Structure formats: C-alpha cells, structure tokens
Amino acid sequence: MRNNTRQRILEVSLELFSQKGFSAVSIRDICGRVQIKESTLYYYFRNKQAVFDELVSLFEKKAEEMMKRLEEGLNGGIFPSNGNFYRNVCDAFFENYLMDDFCNKVMRLLQIEQYGNEKVREIYDCWMFEKPLAFQGKVFRMLMEAGVIAKSDSVYLAVKYYAPISMFARRWLFAGELTEEKKGMFRREAYYHIERFFAEIKAGE
Question: What stretch of H or E contains 179?
C-alpha cells in the first residue's frame, strides 16, 4: 500500500507539473488529486521539490538505459549499414523515449521549467540535444569509416539529421495533450525526413 501511494503521488505530480509547470502546482493540488492528506505526502517526500527531483532522477535513469542500449548496439556489431539499424534506433528513440508516456511528460516539464532554472535547462539540453547529437555523430563517423557514405563533417550531419526531428517533436509531441493522432503526425513527418535525408547524402557521394 505504501509503495502504491508513493507511486500515485509521483504519477499525479508529473501529470500536473507537465501541464501547468512546477511553480503553478501546490502540495494541496497534488493531495487533492491523489485523495490523501498533506501529512501523508510529507511521509514520503520532504517537500514538493523532492517530488520533482525524484521524477527527474527516474527520467535520467531511464534515458541513460536507452542510450546504453543504443551504444551497445553499435559496439556489439549491429552496424549502421544494416537495413534494420535505423528502424531499431527510431523505434527506441521515438517510441520508447519521445513518445513514452513518462519520458514525454518529464520532457514537457523540463521544457517549461528550463527558462527559470539553469540546472533544469542543462538537463533538458543534455537529453533533448547533447546526447542524441553525440550518438548520431558517432553513427555517421562509423558510416564514413565503412565507406557507406562519403567523408564529411559528422557533427554537421548529425545536426542536419536531428534538427527537423527535434522540431517535429516540439510541434507534435510536446505541445498539448499527447494523442495517437499527434504521434501519427510525428511518425509521418519524422520518417519521411529520415528517408529523404539518407537518399540525399547517398546521392551526394
């Protein structure tokens, strides 16, 4: 029962935080939705900031695990020239990260709070831009070394590849309620971009 209550506090807090922002949500709001007394929340968490910190910690752990799996795929011989590689990467990054209910809500929360909190901005930048770009740059370097694509600037290619995807994510996945229709729009635009991108860089060899 205790674990269920703690988990319910986290779930409700994230739902409210991702909709209104951290500052606009009170302990009373959370307790009212969970249907517990404020003293019960304080049994599990020192304050509202502790709830926020726990959510971010859980998110970072999940995101780290996803990036680790992708890196292991590269290092373990699942090479980028393999026809299934990019589909697997997209499935992992799109379906299990950007469109994962928990990760999506935390990313929305970070997106809201980054403007007033430097630490939050750094976390948002890390997981929305820095880590994905670093991984993609590594993929392009491997493709070049294998002769799959022509030698070029891997950092530039990573930005050119990822910039539209991040734009589509902000347009469809991080604005308002995440619906199946919005997921479909994101998939359609993101996969179309990916197909065009690789057709263009191969044609330009």
Answer: none
